[in-house]
Specification:
It is built from 1 helix and 17 strands. It is mainly β. The protein has one domain (19-226): Jelly Rolls (Sandwich), CATH 2.60.120.200. Strands 1, 4, 5, 7, 12, 13, 14, 16 and 17 form a 9-stranded mixed β-sheet that branches. The chain has an 8-stranded antiparallel β-sheet with strand order 2-3-6-15-8-9-10-11, with no helix packed on it. Strand 12 (147-155) and strand 13 form a beta hairpin. The longest helix is centred in the last third of the chain and has 15 residues, at 211-225. The model is unreliable at 1-10 (pLDDT under 50).
Length: 233
């Protein structure tokens, strides 16, 4: 007979509980200290984030409820490349992060390049923004501190496209297809270097989570794992 959890304890929900998980970088997969050369993917897709050029993220300890984070400094241009870039016109990304310099300069937290500007989200001024190579820009008012930032997008039907940041529909256009490309953590452009602490990121590809799924992930995974999270987006 299998041994259960101690009385009064409940099992954490997991991003793996839902189909379509394309990448999952979690703090438990970071090394003990020093340079981050590889942040192993826990989605089962072996889509690791690996250093190959630029400055290196550093392991920061005790950042959020005892968990580590990937830290980028103000002076560096840190970057980790994914083993396989993810391009999809329907997706759902969750980040747990604290952007230290947002509000003072453009910052590209996670990004993709396809030969042109294809920045997935950029913290610019007092907003989060997303831009694609076609010049489309959407923005969302930024909140400081450690937070859960969720971004999802997809076609409402065959012609309409929607994009949502923090539960706010910030972009809805007709006759347009958005296919954001994610292939790196950080930025390759010195003008857009990001600095802060990135604790965790997971992304669903080809689908978005329902409201019930999202509530379960937040209440029974994120808030139980990181109980001090107070800013929700």
């Amino acid at each position: 007979m299998p041994i259960g959890l101690p009385k009064g304890r409940t099992r954490l929900a997991s991003p793996l509980n839902y189909a379509g998980l394309g990448i999952w970088l979690k703090p438990e997969s970071l090394g003990a200290s020093g340079d981050i050369l590889t942040w192993a993917d826990s989605s089962g897709n072996s889509n690791d984030a690996t250093w190959s050029t630029g400055d290196k993220f550093q392991v920061a300890t005790g950042v959020l409820d005892g968990f580590k984070a990937a830290r980028a400094s103000d002076a560096g241009l840190e970057r980790l490349d994914l083993t396989s870039g993810i391009e999809t016109n329907t997706g759902d990304i969750w980040l747990i992060l604290d952007s230290k310099g947002a509000g003072s300069e453009d910052q590209q937290v996670i990004s993709g390049f396809d030969g042109a500007q294809n920045g997935l989200f950029i913290g610019t001024g007092s907003t989060w923004a997303w831009r694609d190579s076609g010049g489309i820009t959407v923005t969302y008012t930024y909140s400081t501190g450690m937070q859960v930032l969720r971004i999802k997008w997809g076609p409402a039907n065959g012609t309409n496209q929607w994009f949502e940041i923090g539960g706010v529909d910030v972009h809805n256009r007709t006759s347009i297809t958005i296919t954001p490309l994610l292939n790196m953590i950080g930025s390759q452009l010195s003008a857009w270097e990001w600095y802060g602490d990135l604790v965790e990121i997971f992304m669903y590809v080809g689908q978005t989570r329902t409201d019930a799924d999202a509530t379960n992930l937040y209440n029974n995974y994120l808030k139980k794992k990181f109980p001090s999270l107070s800013v929700t987006r």
